[in-house]
Amino acid sequence: YRYEVVQMQAMETPSRGVLSPLQVRIQQLGLQGPAVEVWLAVDYRYLPVRIRLVDGQGIITLLRIERFTVE
Predict the structure, then answer these.
(1) CA–CA separation, 33 vs 36, rounded Å?
(2) What integer pLDDT is reported at residue 33 of this predicted model?
């Protein structure tokens, strides 16, 4: 796998306001497999707040956190 730190990007959340998560792109080496991008909330122990998956056929699946609590 190849991991690439892309950027810090502002993201609005309903329960926490604006976060500045770290965007990381993950790809398999030498294969035309799925590409994954993960946004990690640095201030919240690198909690994944958004995941974007593009499969080999170009179908995009997007998961985004709506709400979380910190204890």
Answers:
(1) 10
(2) 72
Q: What is the mean pLDDT of residues 37-42?
A: 92
pLDDT at 46: 92
Predicted TM-score (pTM) of this structure: 0.81
Please enumerate in sequence order all residues whose Cβ is within 8 A of that of 53, keeping only pairs 6 or more positions apart, or say none: 34, 35, 36, 60, 61, 62
Distance CA 36, CA 3 (A): 10
For 12, phi and psi rounded to 5 degrees?
-85, 135
**What type of residue sits at position 50?**
R
Burial 19-46 (b: 16+ CB within 10 A, else e): bebbbbeebeeeeeeeebbbbbbeeeee
As a whole number, mean pLDDT of residues 2-21 equals: 83
3-state secondary structure at position 66: coil
